[in-house]
Amino acid sequence: MTDIKALRDCISDSGMTIVAIAEKSGILRETFYNRMKTGDFKISEICALSDTLRLDRDGRDRIFFANNSELKSANKE
Questions:
Q1: pTM of this prediction?
Q2: pLDDT at 68 (0 to 100)
């Protein structure tokens, strides 16, 4: 599940607008706004947003896989 608050904070910290983030990530503006409501991003969108926002693996996982207990367990090993 996506941590929408953390994503919004990251976008705010980037200094770019949501529209600019969407454009640079190759995501339609309307689609991006819908994903921000549901938190249901496709893997390709997560990759594109991670590149655009310059997220490292931990930042990406914290935002886009916030409640994924399997992922957290795997990272601890």
A1: 0.82
A2: 58
| pLDDT reported for residue 70 | 46
| Number of separate helices (H) and strands (E) present in the chain | 6, 0
Q: Phi first, then psi: what are they for 23, rounded to 5°?
A: -60, -45
- Give the CATH number of domain 4-76: 1.10.260
How many other CB atoms are there within 10 angstroms of residue 22's CB atom?
23
Q: Report the candidate in 44, 69, 64 with the shortest Cα–Cα distance to residue 4.
A: 64
Q: Which amino acid is at 11?
A: I
Q: What is the DSSP letter of 39?
A: -
pLDDT tens digit string along 11-38?
A: 999 999 999 999 999 999 999 999 999 9
